[in-house]
Amino acid sequence: MSKREITKKIAQDSGLTILQAQKAYMAMLEGIKEALRRGDHVTFSGFGSFEVKTRAERKGRNPKTGEIIPIPPKKRVKFTPSRELKKSLQ
Q1: pLDDT band at 90, cuts 50/70/90?
Q2: In principle, which of 12, 32, 39, 48 could form an S-S bond with 81, CB 3.0–4.6 Å?
């Protein structure tokens, strides 16, 4: 589903204009991004939750030379689906 399809659905279901739905969509995404930047856990009841996890430093290998190289730690976003979402997909 694309951004356009999502905002169209929001507009139809809520009685908002397309422009208002686009602004609401963008505000929601920015709110989620900001919360994750702060390290907060974002939860949508009945859908799932997002949280930032730090991947530990590890060793990798250069496939060309076989040399072992360190891979630095990095942050990633983890999504955990709710039980309701999992059940709805079965």
Answers
A1: confident
A2: 48
